[in-house]
Amino acid sequence: MIIKNPQFEVSAVRENQYPKNGLPEVVLVGKSNVGKSSFVNTMINRKKLARTSSEPGKTRQLNFYNMDNLFYFVDLPGYGFAQVSQAEKDKWSKFIDAYLTKRENLCGVIQLVDLRHPPTKDDINMYEWLMHMHKDVLIVATKCDKISKGQWLKHIKQVREGLKADKEQKIIAFSAETGQGVEEVHQWVEEQINNYLPPTTIEE
């Protein structure tokens, strides 16, 4: 998969603000400091399309990134960031739940976790919810360059057991620094897009 002209398209919190062209959407979920923006930039070989920050929790809306009019990456606000007020978390929860449960264009979910550590309670809750909703999920274990390659399998097992994921669940070791895992993620995204059935009605 070669993305030639990726574009940030829109930030949204309501359904009437979402893109209306019927393209498939791959949504990104993960805790605030797991590296979702760096993941997007690495996947499309751009340094600054998705804004990264040293201060986690900056994403406050659904950010839609148009990938050559083939599909969207949709970046959700990170979960588990304690410095965000409860009122703000409740507001996020409403529009995130609405998107994940009702959006017909959603063709797959990439859940990012930190390979270095066991899944957090929020990671586990999100994965359980996605399984309950029968979503197609890819687990991307970020920051694999921070540990030795010989330890990857051990840490992937730790992720799998922490999430209580079955052996069929695909988990990919990923690094925004080295590009490790990019081709595997591209392959999974292509499969999701190829299996996508567009909504029966598309707004003009």
How far is the N terminus from the C terminus? 28 Å
Strand content: 15-25%
Structural class: alpha/beta
Count the helices. How many?
5
* Radius of gyration over C-alpha positions, nearest whole angstrom: 16 Å
Order of helices and strands: EEHEEHEHEHEH
Task: Note down, in words, how this protein is organized.
This protein is an alpha/beta fold and 204 residues long. A 7-stranded mixed β-sheet has the order 1-3-4-2-5-6-7, sandwiched between helices. It is globular and about 45 Å long. About 3% of the residues have low confidence.
Quick overview of this protein structure:
The chain has 204 residues and is of the alpha/beta class. It has helices at 36-43, 86-102, 121-132, 152-163, 182-194, and strands at 6-12, 25-30, 62-67, 71-75, 106-114, 137-142, 171-173. The protein has a 7-stranded mixed beta sheet with strand order 1-3-4-2-5-6-7, sandwiched between helices.
Layout of helices and strands:
Layout: E1 6-12, E2 25-30, H1 36-43, E3 62-67, E4 71-75, H2 86-102, E5 106-114, H3 121-132, E6 137-142, H4 152-163, E7 171-173, H5 182-194
